[in-house]
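Example (one chain per record):
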Amino acid sequence: MVHPIDTKDPKAVEGEVRSICAAMFPGADLSFVPQAFEWSAECFAGHHRDYGPIDSRYHDFEHTLQATLCLARLLRGRQLAGAAPALTVTDLQRGLLAILLHDTGYLKRHDDTAGTGAKYTAVHVVRSQAFVDAFLAAKGFQPADVRAVQNMISCTGINVDLKAIRFQSEAERTVGFAIGTADLLGQMAARDYVEKLRALYDELSEASRFADAPLPGNFAFASAEQLVRNTPAFWQRYVLPKINRDFGALHIFLNDPLPDGPNAYLQRIEENMARIRAASGSSGARETS
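Predicted structure:
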């Protein structure tokens, strides 16, 4: 069974992910795991030369750690199931970099003093891709590695056309879809997800105020209470179809034991949705990433 890991503790998440990676590739050089975590932590803590610390209250560093832990568990389950295509250590490294850097688009440059990084909600995926382009190139990664990470990050876009992403291999596509799945499930399964929805409302409201053009209707809410009430419908009408159809139901590899055991992530999300329904007795539709 999935044992609890404190996602507020970066070292706890890093240790668990490293253990999972070691189980996937015994004897492999896994020095990239602590390195990737260190780079991500430094970026979000404001130790990058050009960027300050993350100041978005919902899309914080813990959100990244939640998604990263979910991704590692999913890929491990997929490997245990013997699913094709088989992934390599390189695929794993690219995927780990992608998930740990996928929300760097919320970071603000040091001279950017207006508002918080939440104002970049509508363009944060593109900004994340631009960030990793410069960041990974400076670290000596090859263009094919950088492109793979960018393609994987594209899968976290809320309205992305997955068919338009020019994946370089089927393995790259698989890891990208796993990242898109983990980004959604990691946050929605969190114990404090319902409480953090009010911080998400604040982010969307700020994004609307700073947008050059009106945000799509699925970003607009009259109140935090309305967003919370509409979240069960978001789960049913957007997330479930997306992870089942668009992302190829990769979430089944979180079932423990495989193939038909319970899925702790889906169970926790259903518990969160039940809490909202019990409190509000209402549902609707919303979308975010």
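Caption: The longest helix spans residues 224-246.
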